[in-house]
Design a protein that fits this description.
The chain is mainly alpha-helical and about 90 residues long. It is built from four helices and no strands. The termini are far apart.
């Protein structure tokens, strides 16, 4: 059995200015851009989601997502009727 690590190459098109800026950030963090992209992909696969929240979502949606992660602040209801009574003002 071979223990040789196989690698695949990924080719993407990005703005040259963005690439340079990302390379600079990665370098400041002590890695190259390839390592940073690999970290991104590993996290995405592990969580089965993007490793960040898109800022393009509506503010109300972002707030709801944040609240859902902090279930202590969510109102809990014993019955659907109690929920509807609270929601209908």
């Amino acid at each position: 059995m071979s223990t040789e690590k196989r690698e695949a190459q990924l080719s993407i098109r990005i703005d040259p200015t963005l690439k340079e800026a990302a390379q600079n950030v990665a370098k400041d963090m002590g890695m190259d851009l390839s390592a940073a992209v690999n970290m991104f992909l590993v996290k995405m696969v592990k969580d089965h989601a993007l490793p960040f929240t898109s800022a393009s979502l509506p503010a109300e949606t972002l707030k709801a997502l944040k609240e859902a992660k902090n279930s202590e602040v969510l109102t809990k209801y014993r019955t659907p009727e109690a929920m509807w009574k609270d929601l209908v003002v």
